[in-house]
Write a structure and sequence with these properties.
The chain has helices at 36-39, 115-120, 272-283, and strands at 6-10, 16-18, 22-28, 42-53, 61-67, 70-78, 81-85, 90-93, 98-102, 107-113, 122-132, 143-147, 154-156, 163-168, 170-171, 174-175, 184-191, 196-200, 206-213, 216-218, 222-224, 229-232, 238-243, 247-254, 262-264, 267-269. The protein is mainly beta and 292 residues long. A hairpin with a 2-residue loop joins strand 25 and strand 26 (267-269). Bound molecules: manganese (II) ion.
């Protein structure tokens, strides 16, 4: 097994708002190399780093909008998001929970801070990751997996409380909670200061880390502080992370989907023609109905 190198350590850029409830740093596609094909099947990553929202009677968020051609994965670290979709689905994504929504052929949904949480306000911290679907699955029926924190399988690394929670894929023989269309590994690694975790994925898999809490050293020499994104190379399989202070790291690795990408706003398809069809279908109400 050869070592996978660190290709780039990317600092968070200036944040922007998605609606009025998500103050995010965009890392994928970003403008620092982690573009859609470079990270495919991970085609978008918005990170709301810790931010204090004041209490309000009118929850902040983003109103009704469509998606087609991929999956949205929402990972809550602090705060609560309420979700409703045109398929009648809905729920609350609270601290430690993950919502894995397969938009596929198309859904309308809205994402807001949960009402009671919004009233109090507080520190909000969240990731939204978009996972691409292969052409053959882009028009499959929508669905979603509401994955509660306590149902995410956990691998204990030591007796001090260092753990790897397996959201999807497989870590050291422990199978993740989410089902995926293509091979995707997604973990939350919580390491006590000084603890080390080793990972190995096929060299071709696009792989990255996001430091949610604390600071880490990758492969014994590359330091990555809080809120930084580590783009790993494709020159080897294995790498290690070591916590220089108590740390929480989102680890992602996925088999590339070798297909063209045509993306515009909330639609990610293979061809421009399919994008036009998506807009037509949306305008004709074929994504269903959801009240604002
Ligand atoms: Mn959305």
């Amino acid at each position: 097994m050869t070592t996978r190198s660190v290709e780039a350590i990317i600092r968070p850029g200036a944040p922007h708002y998605v609606g009025d409830g998500f103050r995010v740093h965009n890392f994928i596609p970003g403008n620092q190399g982690a573009n859609m094909q470079r990270m495919n099947p991970f085609i978008m990553l918005d990170y709301n780093s810790k931010y204090h929202f004041t209490g309000t009677e009118k929850p902040r968020g983003v109103g009704v909008h469509p998606h087609r051609g991929f999956e949205t994965v929402t990972i809550a670290y602090q705060g609560k998001v309420a979700h409703h979709d045109s398929g009648g689905g809905g729920g609350v994504i609270a601290q430690g929970d993950v919502q894995w929504m397969t938009a596929a052929s198309g859904v309308l949904h809205k994402e807001y801070h949960e009402e009671a949480w919004a009233r109090e306000g507080g520190i909000f911290q969240m990731v939204q990751l978009w996972v691409n679907l292969p052409a053959k699955d882009k028009m499959s029926p929508p669905k979603y997996q509401a994955i509660k924190n306590e149902t995410i399988p956990q691998v204990d690394l030591d007796t001090a409380g260092s753990t790897v929670k397996v959201i999807a894929g497989n870590y050291q023989g422990t199978q993740g909670a989410a089902s995926t269309f293509t091979p995707v590994h997604l973990f939350n690694a919580r390491l006590k200061s000084g603890a080390r975790a080793d990972f190995s994925f096929p060299a071709a898999y696009h792989t990255a880390l996001l430091v949610i809490e604390g600071a880490i050293t990758v492969n014994g020499k590359h330091e990555a502080p809080t809120d930084h994104f580590v783009l790993m190379g494709n020159d080897g399989e294995a790498f290690s992370i070591e916590a220089s202070e108590d740390a929480l790291v989102l680890v992602m690795s996925g088999e590339p989907i070798h297909e063209p990408i045509a993306a515009h706003g909330p639609f990610v398809m293979n061809t421009r023609q399919e994008l036009i069809e998506a807009f037509d279908d949306f305008n004709q109400g074929k994504f269903g109905y959801l009240e604002d």
